[in-house]
Structures are given as C-alpha cells and as structure tokens.
C-alpha cells in the first residue's frame, strides 16, 4: 500500500518517501502555526484613532483606520512595538501604545458593566485617551457632566462617550470617588505637544480622513487645506497671527467649535473642529482652499 492516500503514476519509492516526509512536516508545523495565535488571543481596544497596517512598521501599507474605542483581537506577541491583530475580520498590525493591552500597561478590557447615560457624580474628572493616569487628557469633564457608559472597563476606568468622542474616565469619579485632575477647567492656553499617536505624517493623514468621513467632507479637500496651512505639522504656530495647529486655527475661532475644551495642537481635535466648521458652512474662513 502506498504511504500516502494518493498515487503518482510512474513514481518510484524514493519519490513516495520524499513526499511523505514533506507532507508530515507540513502537517506538524501547519498544525502548530494554526493553534499558535489562539494561545495568544486576547481582546483589547484602541485608545485613539489608529492605523491597521499590513506589517509591523510605520511605513507598512495602511489597511484600515480604527477609531478610538474599537475592539480588536490580538493574535500574538508584539514585533517592533506592533501587535498582530484582527479587526473586523482583517489581519494586520497595530501599534501597542494605542491599545489598552499595550503602552499604558492597563490590562485587558472587561465588558458587561453598566451601560447608559449618567451624570458625573464627583467631578471635575479627566477625560483620557486610555484607561490609565499615564494616558493623555483629552479634556476635563465638569461635575454633573453627562457621559454615556459603554459597558467596558479596565484598570479602574470606564469606557465612555463624551461630547461625541470615545475615551476613558475614572470609574469612581463617575459613580462616586475621585481622579486627580491635572489641570483646572479654566487652565491657561495649552502649549504645543507632539502628535498624540507619534506615528508621523501617514497617521496625520488618517486623522484628517477620519474627520472628513465623520462630517461628510471631501478627504482630498481637507488634506489639501491642512497641507497648505501647516504642512501637516500639528504643532505649527504662525508667529505673526498666532494661528495654531494642524488647521491653523485662530484661538477665538477654535473656541467657537464643539472642540473648544481640547488642545488646539491636538491633531484629532483640530481636524474634527475643521470638519465641523466645513459641515456648518464655514469652510470659507480658511485662506487655503
């Protein structure tokens, strides 16, 4: 009987032995590879808008853009700081600093918690990009501020939606307790900060595209205007006019948007503020068109 469940006409015993050995190796290693990701599978969430890339590098092609709060599955250990993940059925890599399992060291997200709108019991409380005190403060939620609980929690923080944006806040502060606020609500104008995702112009483009999609605007038009205004540098400041940030907002103009409580140098806030203005008939306020 042939050692394999098929027969090759005209083949000698040597060929059968070679094919048998190769097949055995493929089965052994194929089986190992098939179960290996399952051993590392874990659920996590994005803490900011984050690119899903084809490889573990910043120059790898972008497969998709995951908005803050998206649930993804990690399938292995990080490579160059990037975790292998599956997002909506697509396999790729995501930078670990912007996953709850990654840079913040905050552990996995747990579901099944309270869901629905509540008023902050013990404010003001920091509204953060991730579930730890090491994560960036997006804004400050005042006492009594209305937030929506999503049911997820991690490291003593709850996943919430506030002013139409996903983020995290200390659970005890929402339901009773405290989270030390790093700056008062009436803090002075913020100083320039590096792009929050630290991933270069490719991710700035992704942020602009996400804002364009959110407000029904042309991706190409918003990218062109931002490039003209700031050369895609979120910390850019015009010394003569004090126009600042990715879309070069005048402070008074930025204050007229729903994102007034956020950092004018935050590329996500700047792009969304621009998208909101465009959607409300104020596109003409930019010199670049």
Automatic annotation (TrEMBL):
<protein>
    <recommendedName>
        <fullName>Transglycosylase SLT domain-containing protein</fullName>
    </recommendedName>
</protein>
<feature type="domain" description="SH3b">
    <location>
        <begin position="48"/>
        <end position="99"/>
    </location>
</feature>
<dbReference type="Pfam" id="PF01464">
    <property type="entry name" value="SLT"/>
</dbReference>
<feature type="domain" description="Transglycosylase SLT">
    <location>
        <begin position="208"/>
        <end position="276"/>
    </location>
</feature>
<dbReference type="Pfam" id="PF08239">
    <property type="entry name" value="SH3_3"/>
</dbReference>
<dbReference type="InterPro" id="IPR023346">
    <property type="entry name" value="Lysozyme-like_dom_sf"/>
</dbReference>
<dbReference type="InterPro" id="IPR052354">
    <property type="entry name" value="Cell_Wall_Dynamics_Protein"/>
</dbReference>
<dbReference type="InterPro" id="IPR003646">
    <property type="entry name" value="SH3-like_bac-type"/>
</dbReference>
<feature type="domain" description="SH3b">
    <location>
        <begin position="125"/>
        <end position="172"/>
    </location>
</feature>
<dbReference type="InterPro" id="IPR008258">
    <property type="entry name" value="Transglycosylase_SLT_dom_1"/>
</dbReference>
């Amino acid at each position: 009987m042939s050692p394999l469940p098929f027969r090759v006409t005209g083949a000698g015993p040597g060929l059968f032995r070679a094919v048998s050995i190769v097949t055995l190796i493929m089965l052994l290693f194929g089986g190992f590879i098939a179960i290996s990701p399952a051993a590392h599978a874990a659920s996590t969430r994005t803490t900011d808008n984050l690119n899903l890339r084809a490889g573990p590098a910043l120059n790898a092609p972008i497969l998709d853009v995951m908005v803050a709060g998206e649930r993804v599955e990690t399938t292995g250990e990080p490579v160059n700081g990037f975790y292998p993940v599956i997002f909506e059925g697509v396999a790729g890599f995501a930078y670990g600093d912007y996953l709850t399992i990654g840079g913040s060291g905050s552990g996995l997200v747990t579901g099944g918690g309270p869901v629905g709108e509540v008023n902050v019991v013990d404010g003001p409380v920091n509204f953060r990009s991730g579930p730890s005190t090491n994560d960036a403060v997006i804004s400050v939620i005042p006492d009594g501020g209305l937030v929506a609980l999503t049911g997820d929690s991690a490291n003593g923080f709850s996943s919430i939606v506030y002013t139409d944006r996903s983020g995290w806040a200390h659970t005890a502060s929402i339901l009773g307790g405290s989270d030390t606020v790093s700056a008062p609500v009436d803090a002075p104008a913020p100083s320039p900060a590096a792009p929050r995702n630290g991933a270069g112009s490719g991710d700035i483009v992704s942020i602009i595209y996400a804002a364009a999609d959110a407000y029904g605007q042309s991706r190409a038009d918003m990218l062109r205007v931002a490039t003209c205004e700031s050369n895609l540098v979120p910390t850019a400041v015009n010394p003569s006019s004090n126009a600042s940030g990715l879309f070069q907002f005048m402070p008074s103009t930025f204050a007229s948007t729903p994102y007034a409580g956020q950092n004018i140098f935050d590329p996500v806030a700047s792009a969304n503020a621009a998208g909101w203005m465009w959607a409300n008939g104020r596109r003409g306020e930019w010199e670049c068109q």
